[in-house]
Design goal:
Helix content: 25-40%
Shape: globular
CATH topology: Alpha-Beta Plaits
Number of helices: 2
Number of domains: 1
Structural class: alpha+beta
Largest sheet: 3 strands, antiparallel
Oligomer: single chain
Order of helices and strands: EHEEH
Number of strands: 3
Distance between the termini: 36 Å
CATH architecture: 2-Layer Sandwich
Radius of gyration: 13 Å
Length: 79
Amino acid sequence: MADLVIVARFASRPECIIAQSLLSAEGIETLMPDFNVLMADYDPSMMEHGWRLLGRADDAARIERILRDAQAEAARDPD
């Protein structure tokens, strides 16, 4: 992947995985560089900036729209 940028940050690993899956279903490749952070010597301060999701700079606007729409839909229908 060239020209990677942080396209989103999440408070938890599961949220980031869900977003990554949603984007993958839309045909957008992303990378979660912090995926393997949960190791024996895990220090919570390592995640003070949240779980990062990286994507291509060219896809950033589309990614933002997809995630925003998904969040709005979840707010309307919490079940």
